[in-house]
Design goal:
- The chain has five helices and two strands; from the N terminus they run ααβαααβ.
- The protein is mainly alpha-helical.
- It has one domain.
- The longest helix is centred in the N-terminal third of the chain and has 29 residues.
- It starts with 11 loop residues before the first helix and ends with a strand.
Length: 129
């Protein structure tokens, strides 16, 4: 076996460190993906399939990187998972609350903008096809 002893026991600090790394990395990856794709192309892969595009406040150009980060900051709620014991529950509830805010905001606004679009300076998702 090469001298490797495998046990199922992990210390509290090892578990916390694992969730810390996973929470930070997943938040950065999600936020980076959405922000980069929307600022460079105006679309994520899902928006390409759905024939949707994010426009900047001027209504024609792609959002800037700052606007895209502000628009998608809600995807970073996974960072809450670093809180010991209750982090995964709180992170999930925060993501759910953000999704509900988006659904309610889109359907109650005449320009179909949710709160995060307004926070980003007036970005908007438009149908392109």
């Amino acid at each position: 076996m090469g001298g490797v002893l495998i046990t199922g026991y992990r210390s509290g600090s090892e578990i916390y460190f694992y969730y810390l790394i996973i929470g930070v990395l997943s938040s950065l990856l999600y936020l980076g993906y959405f922000s980069y794709m929307e600022s460079s192309r105006g679309q994520t892969l899902g928006k390409m399939v759905m024939k949707l595009k994010v426009s900047g406040p001027d209504g024609t150009s792609n959002p800037t990187m700052e606007q895209a980060v502000r628009r998608n900051i809600w995807v970073a709620t996974g960072i809450i998972s670093i809180i010991p014991i209750v982090g995964w529950w709180l992170g999930g509830l925060a993501s759910l609350a953000a999704a509900i805010m988006i659904l309610i905001g889109i359907n109650s606004d005449p320009r179909r903008q949710h709160w995060f679009d307004k926070f980003a300076g007036g970005t908007q998702v438009v149908k392109i096809g």
